Amino acid sequence: MKKKVIKYFFICIGIVIIIFILPIMIFFEKHYNKWQIQQNFVEFKIENPNDEIEIINKALKIYLDKMHSIENFNIYDSKKRYDFFYYEDIHDSLVDMVYRNCNGDNKYDDKCEFKTFDKRLDLEYLMKLGEKICINGEPTENAKEILKNDEILQNKKLFYPQDEKALVDENGNFITNFYYQSEMYNLFYGKAFLSEKYDNAHTNKDFDIIIPIDENFRILFLDSVALEYPLGFCQEYNKIITSKESNEKLNFIFIPIKLTKNGAYDILTLEDIFYYRNIYKDTNKIMQYLQSGNIYNEYNNIFNQYQTLKNNNFNKNLNLKGDGNAKN
Description:
Blueprint: H1 2-40, E1 42-45, H2 52-71, H3 78-81, E2 86-87, E3 92-93, H4 95-101, E4 114-116, H5 123-133, E5 134-135, E6 138-139, H6 143-149, E7 158-159, E8 178-180, E9 186-188, E10 193-194, E11 207-214, H7 215-226, H8 230-242, E12 250-259, E13 263-266, H9 270-276, E14 279-280, H10 299-311
Antiparallel strand pairs: 1-13, 2-3, 4-7, 4-8, 5-6, 8-9, 10-11, 11-12, 12-13, 12-14
């Protein structure tokens, strides 16, 4: 009799778990996962699922807004940024200093913001500038004056890409060249395109939005335009001209995208952007994709896609199916 009571007791407990507790657990798990996605990712609607340019423009604005928010944040979000600006050597975070230096989340100021730059400005222009103002890695006496009086270098103004209707045209070309002047410094110019669609066996994304960046141009631009620092410019220029490598040194900004039924997710967290800068670099080392934890070398694949597009004068962009036959 005692054994039967114990048996029925555990049966009743099991029934209670199945009927009441299990649905509650499933409910909380479902909503917790949804909360996690809302915390890290931003979903956007796509009117035409095969329109690459629509996807690029919408995802790019979300990404830039995330990048901007890392240093331009509300005072109440300081705790969320604490670890970003924590330094071991001082055992403290400089988050309050970042908040002051970047003027919080106030808009239309000139602190930690995007700025435009002249479309005539490229690596060739900066290399010719180096010939003019640099001698053996040292700036000439009038170098700073030349930088300040150069019309093309000084052709820059505040820019809010998040507010633009479109950032790239129907061919994937940036309508306006711009850069971000802050800890998260980077350039946005030239061409944006979609990578071939990925096999989800090695990643949880469907494809990347790719923005090629010439690393030599990026570094020389920083010292000549963003910082107006002749010594730094000439030191970097000297490294380039004395190197046996090609002047062109390509890296690729990537924005991973996951498709949904009616749209897509930009699946980059603030941590991804701040700590890893989501850049495929030519390091000849394997890349670890941040979200999935799976190791996969992407740089060579992206570089080959870029070269194919370049050889075709970018007349064909890579579409969502990855066959390279999208309309230009």
